[in-house]
Amino acid sequence: MKVIKKENLNKIISILENDGVIIFPTDTVFGIGSLMGHDSSLQKLYDIKKRNPQKKIPLLVSDKIMIKNIISGSIPESMNKLINNFSPGGLTYIIRAKTKYEKYANRDGSIAVRIPDNDFLLRLISKINKPLFASSANISGKEEINNLDELKRVFKDKVDALIPGETKKDIPSTIISFMEKLPFFIRTGAISKGKIREVIETKTTVLFVCSGNTCRSPIAEEYSRKISNNKLYNFKSAGTLHIENAPISKNSKKIIKGFGGNPGLKSTSLNQNLVDSSDLILTMAKKHKEYVKINYKVDYVYTLAEFSVNKGVIFSNGQFDVVIDDEGFDIFDPVGGSLDYYKKVFKIIKKLIDEIKWKEFDD
What we know:
Strands 1-8-2-3-7-4-6-5-9-10 form a 10-stranded mixed β-sheet. Strands 12-11-13-14 form a 4-stranded parallel β-sheet, with helices on both faces. The longest helix has 16 residues. A hairpin with a 4-residue loop joins strand 15 and strand 16. By secondary structure, it is of the alpha/beta class. It folds into 2 domains: 186 residues, DHBP synthase (Alpha-Beta Complex); 156 residues, 3-Layer(aba) Sandwich (Rossmann fold). It is built from 13 helices and 17 strands. Helix 8 runs parallel beside helix 9. It is found in: Cytoplasm. One of its GO terms (cellular component) is cytoplasm. This is L-threonylcarbamoyladenylate synthase. Pfam families: LMWPc (PF01451), Sua5_yciO_yrdC (PF01300).
């Protein structure tokens, strides 16, 4: 691994153009990356990070013109406003890629782009006139590394160059998706939801939580999606038992299919990103509520029954209104039970969700 000062721009460009992988400082954390259009170095980047090839790597660009060259269609007005207010900076945009960039995009055609607030990177990308594939300098699933000695130890001779420098924050960027008409948060980080909502309107994200995310919470997620305005609301679900990517139960699939929802959901483990990107968390039982409060230190969590019986209102601007007079009750877990048992549970979930008021903010 060569250590190269950021002033040696031509030398760094030469390494990138010869299929090299480099580590560099950004305005958030240290990044590791390669040059777009060089597929051998991109594969090397995946190998170094031990990253699943299905998990596509974001792009760093120098300006709005580069984004226009990547995005399918024109830049949405709301995204333009965010670029003008927060870019360069810690905001990543999920956009639909042009056909010629599909091999770098996710299955739904999405690709992540960001304009970093870092003079070195902006000069580098501008001079080379190509985006950089860039991910956090870590092994996938491990914590980001922001110490030069640790970077040298972990990556040793795996990368071609290390560019020393200071990062501004030990916090990753905020990620917001523009894959639908109304944008929604994927992750909150360097820029808060509040600051973004001062500039544009975004979807309200509601997260349902149960134990395994195979029975109650996916039913609640899909039923809410079915009855509400999907243009204004974004629904997710997760479990506290850290069961990842398991199919939901057979009887949950039957219930969801019965009301016309998507029965193909798979379990997701509750994590910090899901909590941070949500505006309201509704749990199936008090133990889940306490788990979220203790482990994630947030106050926007209620049991579904608690929120519903107290006539909770969810607005389309990320806010909600509820006054707690009744603690509500737990929704019992149907796991392992008969289809009739699941139907009883769904009847309760349906009644509670039907009683929640979903309102546009200017109603």
